[in-house]
Structures are given as structure tokens and as C-alpha cells.
Specification:
heterodimer, A: 245 residues, mainly alpha, B: 222 residues, globular
Amino acid sequence: MWDWLKQNGLSPKSFYRTSGLCLPWLTVLFLGCAGFGLIDGLYIAPADYQQGDGFRIMYVHVPSAFAAMAVYFAMAICAVLTLVWRVKLAAVCMSCSAPIGASFTFLALVTGSIWGKPMWGTWWIWDARLTSVLILFFLYMGFIALQSILAEQHYRDRACALIALVGVINLPIIHYSVIWWNTLHQGPSISQLAKPAIAPSMLYPLLAMIAAFFLFYLSVLFMRMRNQILLREKHTHWVREVVLS
Amino acid sequence: MTLFFSLVSYELRITMRQAFSWVTPLVFFIIVICLFPLSIGTHSALLSEIAPGMIWVTALLAVLISIGSLFRTEDEEGSLSLLLLSPYPLSVLVFAKIASYWLTHCLPLICVTPLLGFMLHLPALQVLVLCLTLLLGTPALCLLGAIGAALLVGIRGNGLLLPILIMPLYIPILIFGTSAVLAASQEQPLSAYFAIMGAFTFMSVAMAPILTAVALRMGVSQ
């Protein structure tokens, strides 16, 4: 079963075909979710009683922070597939995910700081959650730097997979040590911006936006992967056919 | 076990015969620490407050700058391939190399730390705690750095890539190392900090040599 999957389902060629069929649907779904989420979130949902309209940046901030972490975990899963089973497609997926994940992390940091200015009165505080997202950004940067400096394809994939795995083992440790450090160095800050009971009228657009971010990730990922596959398999027969047709 | 110790003593003999290779990180450490009072000012209260973080960050930089060349001479002269081909488990050989690296590059730094601590007006108890955290934490720094050094073994001009790659992984060690000294200054119990740093170091001892060996095999077979 696994061998069959590796031979047929996970081969670059069949992925190229399937992803080409999926891509328009993914894009349409993304546009639908994003359209619903943005219109509902920005115009229809009621303003927050405390934060007014300022809370609406949440509809970009929360999904991007969520996606930033999810993409790193997806990369770690791909890393295992690359190192253990040498699935070619997983290596492509991992290397194409990194820039997208880094952009999500950057977006989360920027929107968080824009949100922080009116709510906390400052662009940046050394809060545990902010700091660990910043460190996640550094992890992405290290991965991308390693990827860009290594020339040989096979070695680059395996080396990057190793670093992604080491990173994902360390991520929870870093997160909890930052929380500990934060509680030690400063008193209880405004970090507990918890939203225990969020009204459904605010929740649905948020869920739609999260879905939209994941669909966006998938469609951009597929586009990047298709490019990468054509580049990697440029000496094979089927790529010549695809490019020439 | 005998293999491990004979390899460590072999490495130590080599290092002792080229004094600059272990004196350079030490001098780097002392000079960088001396730059801080010159740039920030010499108020003893200020210095003693920032001294633990300063010493920790500088030790971290000293490790990061020198550990990139952990496998470089072996790679250049070709003995790295012999290590890979030897019948002994590569992770043991790698662990011996890291252990001797720690003995020659980190232990001297820890030995001069009390001196620097007193120069920065740090109270004796905090100096002691600082040295203990360095003793517990620097092995983990070396072990994690070795993974990066092994990954980049064949790459020239990797001076800044290794710090970018490895620095985020050092953050927990840095946090607990400096927090322990802070807790000592406030007379809080310290055992939790030492326990966590010890756990971190032992986890690195268990995992890093294996990962380093994997990375070395990948790098050499490319």
C-alpha cells in the first residue's frame, strides 16, 4: 500500500496533474471564504464593547498567527517523510512552505503590533506570546538561510529537514521557557487578552478567515510546488512534454 | 568507553600543542566583557545588574564563533572520512570531539568568570551561581552547536549562517541561566533552575551526538 502510494500517488508527476486540477477549486474556495470572512468581519459583526472597531484586526491577526505555527508543523511532518521514507514530494512541500510560513509569521507580528498600539499603548511589549512568535520567525529565517546557501539538491533537502526537526522539538521548550521568563521579569501584563466566550456573530467570520488562510496557503503552496517540481524534474520526459505543449 | 577517553585525551593533546586554539576564545570573551563597562558606564549598581546577562551572552557568542570550525580541520585534511569509515559508532566519536571541545573552549571561560564577575561588582553568591549555571549550560550550547557545525561542514563562508541557525535554540538555556542568577540575588530557591538546565543538558547529550552523526554522514556523502 505504502509502496504503491509512494510510486503513484506521491510521485511528482501525478502530483503535478492532480494539483493542476485542484488549483482552480482551491482558489475559488479561498475567494469565497475570504470574501465572506472579510465582509462579515469588517462590516456586519458588531463592534466590541471594549475595543470598539479596533478588534477587527483580529480577523487577520489570529488566522495568520495560527497558520504560522501550523505551517511549521506541516514542515516538520514533511521533514520526517523526507528523512525516513525519502518521499521526494515531501521535500518539495517543505522547501516551498518555508517562505509562506515566514510571511504568515511576519504578518502576525506586524498586525499584532498594529493592534497593540491602540490597545496597550505601545507597538511592542516583551510579552511571552509575542516573543515566541518572534523566535518562530527566527527559526523560519534560519531554515531559509540554510536552504539558500546549500547548492546540492539532495543534501539540501535532508539538511533542511534535520534543522526543521530540531526546531520543532525545541519550539515547545522555547515557548514555555519564554512564558516562565516573562512571569519572572515583569508582573502580570495585559497578555491575558483571553476571549473566553466570543459571540457567534464574531466567531463565524473568524472561522471563515482561518479557513481562508489555510486555503490560501494550500493554493500558493501548490503553485510553488508545481514550479519547483518542473525545475527539479527538468531532465525527465514528461516535463518536456508539459513545457512544450 | 576506553575509545571515548582515548579520543578525548588525543584531542586534548592536539589542542594543548596549539595554544592559540584555546586561548583565542578566552581572550575574545574577556575583551568583549571589558567593552561593556567602557560603553555603558561604570556605575557599580548598573554593572552588577547586567553582568549575568552580559557574561551569558558573551559566552554564547564565544561558543557560536568558534564551534563552526569543530570539524573543519578534519574535513580539510581528510581524516573526517576515516572517522566515518571507522567501525566504531560515529556518535561516540562525535561526542568525544564535543566533550574535548567543551574542555578546551568553555572550561577556561568558566574559570575566568569569577574574576570578571568581581570586576563587574557582582556579589560572591551570584558569582558562584553564575559559574554553576555556566557549568550546566555550556555543554548544551556546544552540543546544539555541533549539529549546526556538522550540517555546514563542507560550506565555505558560513560565518554568520551558523549563529542564525542555532541561536534560537539557545534561548531556553540563556533564559534559565540568567534567571537563576536573578533568583539568587533575590534569595529565592534555585533548585528548579538547576533541575531544568540539567534536564536540558542531558537531553542534548542524549540526542545531539546522534543528530550530529546523521548530519555528518549527510554532509560527507554529498
